[in-house]
Amino acid sequence: MTVDTAPAPAPAAAPARRERTLPAGSVITTFLVLFLVVAAFSVEGFASTRNAGFLLLDVVVIALIALPLTLIVVTGEIDLSVASTVGLCSAVMGQLWVAGLPLEAIVPLVLVLGGVLGAVNGFLVTRLGLPSLAVTIGTLALYRGLAFVVLGDQAVADFPRAWTTWAISSIGSTGIPTVVVPLLVLIAVTAVVLHATPIGRSLYAMGNSEDAARFSGIDVARTKLWLFVVTGVVSALGGVYWTLRYGSARADNATGLELQVIAAILLGGVSIFGGSGGLLGVIAGALLLGSVRNALQLVNVPSDVLNIVTGVLLITAVVAPQVAARVRGRRRRAPA
Amino acid sequence: MSAPATKSPAALPEELAAPERTGRRGSALVHRLFVVRELGILAALVLLVLVTVVANPRFLSGQNVRDLLLSAAILTVLAAGQTMVIVTRNVDLSVGSVLGLSAYATGTLLVVAPGTPVVVAVLAGTAVGAVCGLVNGLVVAAAGVPSLVVTLGTLYAFRGLDSLWASSADRLQINAADLPAGFKALGGARLLGVPVLFLVAVAVVLLVGWYLRTFRSGRELYGIGSAPEAARLSGIPVGRRVLTAFVVNGALAGLAGVLYAARFQTLDTTAGTGQELFVVAAAVVGGVAIFGGSGSVYGAALGALLLTTIGTALPQLGLDPFWRDAAVGALILAAIALDRALQLRLAARLRGRNARRDR
Prior knowledge:
Number of helices of chain B: 13
Low-confidence stretches of chain A: 1-20
Helix content of chain B: over 70%
Largest interface: A-B, 52 and 53 residues
Order of helices and strands of chain B: HHHHHHEEHHHHHHH
Oligomer: heterodimer
CATH architecture of chain B: Orthogonal Bundle
Radius of gyration of chain B: 21 Å
Organism (chain A): Geodermatophilus telluris
InterPro entries (chain A): ABC_transp_permease
Subcellular location (chain A): Cell membrane
Strand content of chain A: under 5%
CATH topology of chain B: ABC transporter involved in vitamin B12 uptake, BtuC
Radius of gyration of chain A: 21 Å
Largest sheet of chain A: none
Mean pLDDT of chain B: 83
Number of strands of chain B: 2
Transmembrane segments (chain A): 24-43, 55-74, 80-98, 105-124, 130-151, 163-196, 225-244, 265-290, 305-325
Number of domains of chain B: 1
Helix content of chain A: over 70%
Distance between the termini of chain B: 35 Å
GO molecular function, one term (chain A): transmembrane transporter activity
Shape of chain A: globular
Strand content of chain B: under 5%
Low-confidence stretches of chain B: 1-22
Number of helices of chain A: 14
Largest sheet of chain B: 2 strands, antiparallel
Shape of chain B: globular
Order of helices and strands of chain A: HHHHHHHHHHHHHH
Structural class of chain A: mainly alpha
């Protein structure tokens, strides 16, 4: 085994090289734009306002939950329980509605519940020092199980029409769903927090080296705890929206959605080990997954087969940069 | 330069490894703690069975126990393979999809060629799984991409392949009536009253356990999981070992697919959906550390048995079956919290022992 013991010129050359690398997410964004252009010309019915509306409606919840989860992944942690939080919040929302509470009271209660569920994750990870992957696999099962305990296998579907039609309404005749507006606000807020505040910088610092972050005065445990709480609240919001959009509260709502959200985040160029990636890429990743699925549905590819596309896209997105880096010889030896 | 073989019976995360002088006694202590950990799950299992029997004496009736063992067999085989992968600080989330693909492939083979001997069908299903495992392992080991991401991708891809195959062959479901009698007999076959499928699972666990404990390459899997960089520097072929772990795990997921086909005999493209979480859960409950380096396949097998028993015991206890997932989740959290406590205690004990000796 030969070990290269002379990396002397590397440090001097590194900054110059780094300047030449593209901003995070630009590759996937370019890919998205190219795909949209090609699909608009080659897939019949893709570029209609009606279809754009459907496409966006399907992406909304994924993009919404991806926002706080991106921050968690950047710090090097993960939360697999988000979809179960959606399910539990949806079930509780249904049960409270059956009990006769008005939606104006239910929604805040459900959001608080989401915060508590997130706090449980955060407590176990930051105070007991348990690995977030294992903790949130546990709460994935726990929260989904509690959703079934709360609502069983029944569905609550008699929500007021005003709310459910708002959930799928569009702005004027543009076809753009109304919910995109609040989503854009949340995207902007998250982008500013992640990319333009000291808090955002500290998240990257934690992801790169937790010890170094702690030594430089960042309260790692508290920051992570709050990230889990926020993720819980946003997932609860996703649960409320999911329930209204499909007009039905069920315990199995959004089952498996966590994998799609994480796929969007990783496709967007965020490293699963933390410390790198940006929000632009994540939003582009979510949109790309949504548009590819939508376009293939329009050309009558069975929906199950779309899974191949999701999987191959995801693997390509992570393998391609590695291979490119190896070809350019930037990395000496990739970890196995 | 020869790699220092791991001497301790149970490999440890590097921060816990005792200095050489106290290595023997330290490792005996470590070994005892791990045995205690496995006995703990066994005790939980026995307690659960006892409580359920008191509530409903028919819980231990022959047919009920046989059903339980049949259900546990599939999860146990998956958990045995997953242990090999997790021990190397990797994870394979695609096993549910591999199970589905292999079950469908085995079913198709038996429908197209009903005369196929059962042994050939078993080998075919296992081979399909091994190929899937090879794909996972190659991408992980060669491209250096985290296994969580790769196998999340193949979770989708293998499932999609399964659907594509089923829809293009225009055979969306394979029913018991389509399968040859010889294969169907496998599902209900018994040896001395014990279901054969369960015996297969036991054999798999013993084989994997023997390999991980006895063989040098098996010990090296623990070394890789404890400290990948140290393993590389000490001359362990990390890429090849990880690749092997993925191929074996894929083959076992393929075997689990055959068992699934033999047990349920009605196959569609949703077979095994969501199993990956129960498999990882079984391993974690059984004391396999999610970040590699420690845990045994026996623990994982007991975890699989415990999770399956919970599923069947709840209704007998008069609880809604809806409580199952919640119970499983709570169990996972309890198990990792317990592991953390044991780990801290062990570290403290080893430190104390060394301090006394140094004086």
